[in-house]
Amino acid sequence: MAYWLALYSDFAPLVVALIINSGTTDLTERYRVAGGTDLANMNAAYGLPGTTRDEAAFAVASVGHDPMKFPLADWSQMRVMQLWGDADTTVVPATHGEAWALKYGPSTDALVTNVRAGGDHSGHNGSYLQVGPMIDFVLGSLETTGTGWLINDTWVKLHGQILPVIFYF
Hints:
By secondary structure, this protein is α/β, with parallel strands linked by helices. The protein has helices at residues 2-8, 27-33, 36-45, 55-61, 97-104, 131-140, and strands spanning 17-21, 79-85, 110-116, 143-147, 154-158, 161-164. The protein has a domain at 2-26 and 66-142: 3-Layer(aba) Sandwich (Rossmann fold). The protein has 6 helices and 6 strands, in the order H-E-H-H-H-E-H-E-H-E-E-E.
């Protein structure tokens, strides 16, 4: 979802940096291996019935939403940080974050990866615990111009506009 929001949503023109924490990057692969509640939730999100896997119907229903199928050129103005742990078995890096970085990284304005040895999905040394590197990435992507009223009282100048910094966790 974050990939689509950053590139194609109504507020995409305001996005200057994207951070992905152990995120599903290959929606088709995630569906292929999903089971139980995950499969039911993915089916429900795309209007498919119950818990029966139907890869062909999912492929049709999810057109335009699979980050691994977005055009390379769409990333040319985006700075991206991908975080994952090499022991993540929930969203396996080789088919998600790492695969995305290899395919799209050269097409981005900048790509930063944060890979933790022994890190899992969200618990032990997980991506969500890497708040410092994420803040450094965002602030390093922007030109600080003064103070304001949002997170850390930080405002930035982007393409000639003064904008507040907003963090979503």
